[in-house]
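#lab-general

N.A. 3:47 PM
ok so I finally got the sequence cleaned up, no stray characters, all 245 residues accounted for. can someone with queue access submit it? mine expired

B.Y. 3:52 PM
send it over

N.A. 3:53 PM
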Amino acid sequence: MTIRVALAGAHGTMGTLFDSILSDIADVEVVARLGRSSSLDELDHADLVVDVTHPEASRAIVEHAARNGAQVLVGTSGWSESRIAELRGSIPDDAGVLIIPNFSLGSVLGTTLATIAARFYSSIEIVESHRASKADSPSGTAVRTAELMTAARAGLGPVEAPHTEQRARGQEVAGIPVHSVRRQGVVARQEVLFGGTGETLSVIHDTVDPSAYERGIRLSLDAVRTVRGLVVGLENVLDLGITRA
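B.Y. 4:20 PM
back already:
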């Protein structure tokens, strides 16, 4: 059975990568490639909608696709916990939506390691760097990492984050300062900094080429076919072989 796919954001960097990968999957046919001026009606004949657009456009695309019975794979950044909660209340209970803040295996492993470490350190900050043209900050990966670390620290008290009223201290996400750098020559980098008595720990992940996303994209395209409800994170697609926090 051929799966009909609509690709929203087809002409962007991630859209181009998705298009190349989709064309290599035997039982998939891309029936629509949407750009900025496309109508949402172009999604209506798809079994699967892939959304790699812009944070401002993503919600309408996901809601429209889910209400029309399509499975949805979201690679658009900017989906915070609060936005996900709003989406959960606006789509059918039997919808299948998979949101992936970052398709890199190294990135999800870095976030998992940081989530484990967060239980043992109370001084935590995130520094993330992306290309100069990235539309949103903090990155969706940094937001996801901060939210997971704070959840892992439930019952341990807030993170030590002094002087966060000063703008140079970054933006607080789930109580953790996040510093965003946008510059040329960078694909993606995240460093989670931990401080403890007499020691520091850094969990660093660098994406040096977009090809790092390919394996995660293929795994997600396979997993989204059977997703029920709203699932967030590549870690929920992988078998990490550990007990999660």
